[in-house]
Amino acid sequence: MLPTTADIVVIGGGCMGASVAYHLAARKAGTLVLLEREKFLAMGSSGRNAGGVRYQFSTPVNIQLSLYSLDVIARFQEIFGVSADYRPLGYVFLLTQPHEVQAFQQNIALQKALGVYDVRYLEPAEIARLAPHLNLEGVIGGSFCPRDGTADPHTITQTYASEAKKRGAHIETETNVIGIETQNGRVAKVKTNRGDIATRVVVNCAGPWAAQIGKLVDLEIPIVPLRRQFFNTSAIPEIPRDHPFVIEFTTSLYFHSDSTGLVVGMANKQEKPGETYAIDEAFHLETLERAVYRLPLLEHARVTSQTVGLYEVTPDAHPILGPARDVDGFYICAGFSGHGFQHSPAAGLMLSEIILDGAAKTIDVSMLDLERFREGRPVLEHNVV
Ligand SMILES: Cc1cc2nc3c(=O)[nH]c(=O)nc-3n(C[C@H](O)[C@H](O)[C@H](O)COP(=O)(O)OP(=O)(O)OC[C@H]3O[C@@H](n4cnc5c(N)ncnc54)[C@H](O)[C@@H]3O)c2cc1C
């Protein structure tokens, strides 16, 4: 039975909703209900992503979210008794333009200053040693952090949800939020297909659909869904399982190993906002061609599967974390613009601190408020594709 009252209702059962629920439950924040409209958790972006985790961002806040989150991901087994399959493959950004080199050298200096001690600039000869099968035509340098890599989004989402449940949270799937009532400017009730829940606090963790949840309280949330796709290949014997994660910065082409072959993707910079999960076959071919150019061995592999998901994009490629000033009791943890899975451990903790302590204490995320957009205070990120 769906609870009829709750101290806090979390909307969305992806990695963000699960992490927020866990961190609130760990603080004994009262009765907590997480609502997910699908039959299972992680059916949205959290279950359709490439699993990349990295320290290499260009803003202090994103680097700090990575420092906290990747430490948790690396120690997941120790903390929760379940491995998050963290694989420190190292990310190599391939740089082909002089202005990229300049920007990445500045980023490296910032990352080091914040504690990413092992990030470094690479000359093409060093890239060739790390990844000997790459075609490095046009590559003038690179940026590398050996502790960047991959992890398993499903395990992280499911573990946070089950740990929240162990601490008393209600996880309700097949429960679609269809309305939110307010009273005197404050959240009062969440309406669902299975009944209503009286509450004074709602956390919007609806990822690509966060703007739709905002509309339920007449709030403009500038997050749009944007299709992104990748494919998996059959094994390529010459590419070891610990091959670095490679990203060609100009085109956004990336590839890394998975349990059998490679995961290969690229961002279509012409993609328009929308909710389709249909494969863009023309862009799939473009990705394939570019991937074969950079890694000619791919010519001998088969495409074994394709995945389509939705990025949840804000105008400055940073998330919205915090309360909505115009609606008391309405909080947002969404809009991670295609790199959210890796930041879910820190994001959940920050939201719990904002709700329970009035402000995030572990990391200053105050600049990630919703109001920054209408007040002209964007926080621009250079290292996202
Ligand atoms: C192709 C692709 C590759 C990616 N690669 C990476 C990567 O390498 N590394 C990385 O860190 N990130 C990556 N991302 C981004 C990452 O997946 C997202 O940032 C992250 O999953 C966002 O999590 P979320 O919980 O906010 O959203 P979601 O996982 O989408 O969860 C939102 C949930 O809200 C639910 N919901 C929506 N509306 C309602 C409603 N009315 N009622 C109830 N429930 C509702 C949805 O069903 C959904 O389950 C990638 C994304 C894509 C699409």
Name of the top-level CATH class of the largest domain = Alpha Beta
- Largest sheet strand order: 5-6-4-14-15-16-13-17
Helix content: 25-40%
Task: Work out the number of β strands.
Answer: 19
Number of domains: 2
Helix vs. strand class:
alpha/beta
Low-confidence stretches: none
CATH superfamily of the largest domain: FAD/NAD(P)-binding domain
Strand residue content: 15-25%
Shape: globular
Mean pLDDT: 97
How far apart, in Å, are the first and last alpha carbons?
43 Å
Total of DSSP H or I helical runs spanning 4+ residues = 9
The CATH topology of the largest domain is what?
Answer: FAD/NAD(P)-binding domain
Radius of gyration: 21 Å
List keywords for this structure.
binds flavin-adenine dinucleotide, globular, D-Amino Acid Oxidase, Chain A, domain 2, alpha/beta, eight-stranded mixed β-sheet
Architecture overview:
The structure is a single chain. With 385 residues, the protein is α/β, with parallel strands linked by helices. It folds into 2 domains: 8-48 and 153-223 and 316-372, FAD/NAD(P)-binding domain, CATH 3.50.50; 87-149 and 226-309, D-Amino Acid Oxidase, Chain A, domain 2 (2-Layer Sandwich). It is built from 9 helices and 19 strands. The protein has an 8-stranded mixed β-sheet with strand order 5-6-4-14-15-16-13-17. A 6-stranded mixed β-sheet has the order 8-2-1-12-19-18. It has a 3-stranded antiparallel β-sheet with strand order 9-10-11, with no helix packed on it. Strand 9 (177-183) and strand 10 (186-192) form a beta hairpin.
